[in-house]
From TrEMBL:
It comes from Absicoccus porci. It is an enzyme of class 2 (transferase). HAMAP family: But_acet_CoA_trans, But_CoA_trans. This is Butyryl-CoA:acetate CoA-transferase. Keywords: Fatty acid metabolism, Lipid metabolism, Transferase. Coenzyme A-transferase that converts butyryl-CoA to butyrate. It catalyses: butanoate + acetyl-CoA = butanoyl-CoA + acetate.
Amino acid sequence: MDFAAEYAAKLTTADEAVQCIHSGDWIDYGFGLGIVDTLDKALAKRMPQLEDVKIRGAILLKRPAIFDIEDAPAHFCWNSWHMSGIERKACTEDIAYYSPIRYSELPSYCLYEIDDIQVAMFRVAPMDQFGYFNFGPNASHQYAILKRADKVIVEVNTNMPRCLGGWGTGVHISNVDMIVESDNAPLETIPKGGEPSEVDQKVAELIVNEIPDGACLQLGIGGMPNAVGALIAKSDLKHLGVHTEMYVDSFVDMAKAGKIDGSKKNLDPGRQVYAFGQGSKEMYDYLNDNPECMMAPVDYTNDPRTISQIDNFISINNTVDIDLFGQVSAESSGIRQISGAGGQLDFVLGAYLSKGGKSFICCSSTFTNKKGQTFSRILPVLHPGSAVTDTRANTHYVVTEYGMVNLKGKSTWERAEGLISIAHPDFRQQLIEEAEKMHIWRKHNAHVNV
């Protein structure tokens, strides 16, 4: 097969490619770094002629051009699997809406429950000698989209890293309808951040003390997981493994410090396994053609049955709030959507079922709003409308800068006692009073230091 000839035959301009999009269509825009850019700009010019276009995507790292057309809600809506700050803002503009789902279920949902995908568009790396366009660090659920889309358009960007893996890492030219060569804009990045805060450092120290040599790590995004990674990089830990949803810069730091070799993993030994990655250019360069890193679809990486097979699995994630019953809201504050369910619950479940495994939900004890008001993240009950990301039956370890508690199997009064003991001292008495009203406080609890 002459792939070069097929490439030339399918090559077109972005303006020509988006002519296949019509009013009422369902469009897949890609995921994370795979979100299209040149095609987005072309569709922004065409969109005023269209109505009721429904677009799916997630984790925007920059604002799409279509969001800024005149009277955008009259022409399309954005349906997000997992929200970034850009999508949160778009919700207030009646452009974007959240689509709740466990991330691991997304491929099956796309394969068996979505009725229509008229057009799927992906940003990809240049075609290789075998006719494949690599997805970059975006295996996610893309293989399922390919099977369901009526038309597939790839947008080639020479800056996209070529990320190796087992399967679901790219698309063959024979399954592509149109090829658009982009202007090769630099890939969007997430700043690595500076030194961890004092609170992040205290939480990280508590968690790292619980990690044994040879453990397998999953880190979420945020200051605290980053602090854990930084502390591990400076520690005496060795032979660590990686099996994670999102690949972040902390893994690069740990690997370059010699802490990660995957030699003790009893599944995919020697490989750092992930579903997608977002971070710095240094991280993208590290992932490029790196045989130690294995990208795989999210229904493999996030499946609790997969995770539980790996001994000493350590899952570390953030939360927005937690209540005295142990209910974790890691994605919303009241009805305000912040991020998404993602894979947190899957990793909480999988880590607990792992031999020697532990799940850590971490947060600062308080936060301060824009008005300078300070609030406790440990609440009597979650705010009305808050999504329960992890149920109280699943929550394992909870960590703040004031300590760590294990909630697994604990009664309601034991949970209240434990969580109040790691709340900020300024809020402990108030939490005790609320616990008494809810009949989850015993006189025995009186020894808690307020």
